[in-house]
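One record is given unchanged without comment:
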Amino acid sequence: MMPSKKQPMMTQSPKTNQKLSSSPMSRQVMGAITIIILALDQLTKHLVQTYVQLNDAIEIVPGSLNLVHVRNTGAAFGFLNVVDLAYKRVLMTSVALAALAAIGFYAWRVEVHETLSRTGLALILGGAIGNLIDRAFLGYVIDFIDVYWGNIHFWAFNVADSAITVGACLLIMDMFLATDNVPTST
């Protein structure tokens, strides 16, 4: 009898009853994704600070994309950006730190075979740490990607924001793909 090529073993996750590939995502891989996002975020922000004047815009794709240099002292999407609070820097850093701790705790508990969730959480952690570094050391987050259509400009964002958004989308996808405790009709 000839040996056959080894096929990836399919297992069922006890938590979700989903068929999964036997390629679990270790915490080391999650850490690597987090560090890569953090490094890309900090590098791009450094380049923007170095080469683009504050509040300047460089047109990249006419009518849709600019490279800008703006400071966001508020929360996501500029929320509370124009609010002047006495301890705003401490408040915003504390909220970000608490959110980061909660996400980290949750990420630690996600099962090794929940690859989509682990990937999403690693992206979110990398982005959250990147923005937290800015907020703690600078008092604001550097945003530089300006997507627009005509005269309508969306909120400027950065690599960290992009990673957080993609990570959140992956978590939502995972929720829709999970079949935990879903009754089946026969």
Summary: The first strand starts at residue 10 and ends at 12. The longest helix spans residues 27-51.
